[in-house]
Amino acid sequence: MAPAEDHDSGMESQEGSQSVDPEVEKQPSQEAGAGSEPPAKKQPAIESAEDAQELIETLSERLWGLTEMFPERVRKVTHTTVMTTKMGLCKAYSLSRSVAWVVFSTSIILFAPVIFEVERANMEEMQRNQQKQILLGPTGAISGGVPPPLLPR
Q: What are the protein's UniProt keywords (predicted)?
């Protein structure tokens, strides 16, 4: 008889935890003041770990459960739309990666020699100006080799 009594006492504790005590409900509202939100209702206590495992539900499980309220045709169309969109996005991403690789590698191959030639031409020009400055002096390099005319005093 002892197990039956334990079972009955478990039922009483479960029922007692589910009921809302009016005194407990009044205390938070009295402490919070007149202008605050109403107190939240108590949640029933979970008796065991097995019950807790049954109550835990993921978002994907909830969404899957909601699909049962739609007709089969709507589910198929939605599935096809989602899968087509996913496949299209994957292909667009792959294509954009390929296009980016071609554009950047081609621009480097085409523009790198131009950049090197411009830099080489600038270096040659700087060397010519430096040689003129050494041979003709500071004013000779600027004027191109012809000395400026002297002003009368």
A: Membrane, Mitochondrion, Mitochondrion outer membrane, Protein transport, Receptor, Translocation, Transmembrane, Transmembrane helix, Transport
